[in-house]
């Protein structure tokens, strides 16, 4: 864990996955923002909250994606990582420089990713 990354925002529509991520990250000493399971809530948090990094599930159900949340975070200069069961090339809105983690996630994957991200 880096000293500068403390507040982690989680956007994940599968409630069990979201709570598993919360448990893993809290055990590592991070403060969790969210989790958000709905796009509207996620967008509001992305616009206003103090966030160091975010993990964004690509598919939020009902035809919604986390793309608007990513755009808001990008405009605020907040790093984020997409999480998905899809292959990177199946997602048309991911930029070449965007970090993508493939589900299922592990605590090890989250920890490694957090040490590689520059806030």
Automatic annotation (TrEMBL):
Where are the 4-aspartylphosphate modifications?
57
Q: Name the keywords, alphabetized.
A: Phosphoprotein
Q: Name one Pfam family in it.
A: Response_reg
Response regulatory domain sequence ranges: 7-118
Endoplasmic reticulum: present as a keyword of the record? no
- Extract the Gene3D superfamilies matched here: 3.40.50.2300
Claim: Translocase is one of the keywords in the record: no
Q: Return one Gene Ontology term, BP aspect.
A: phosphorelay signal transduction system
Name of this chain's protein: Response regulator receiver domain-containing protein
- Give the species: Parasphingopyxis lamellibrachiae
């Amino acid at each position: 864990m880096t000293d500068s990354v403390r507040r982690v925002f989680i956007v994940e529509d599968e409630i069990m996955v979201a709570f598993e991520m919360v448990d893993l990250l809290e055990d590592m000493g991070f403060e969790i923002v969210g989790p958000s399971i709905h796009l509207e809530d996620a967008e509001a948090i992305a616009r206003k909250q103090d966030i160091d990094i975010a993990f964004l599930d690509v598919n939020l159900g009902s035809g919604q994606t986390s793309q608007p949340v990513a755009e808001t975070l990008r405009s605020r200069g907040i790093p984020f990582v997409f999480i998905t069961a899809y292959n990177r090339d199946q997602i048309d809105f991911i930029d070449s420089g965007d970090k993508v983690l493939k589900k299922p996630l592990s605590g090890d994957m989250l920890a490694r990713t957090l040490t590689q991200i520059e806030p």
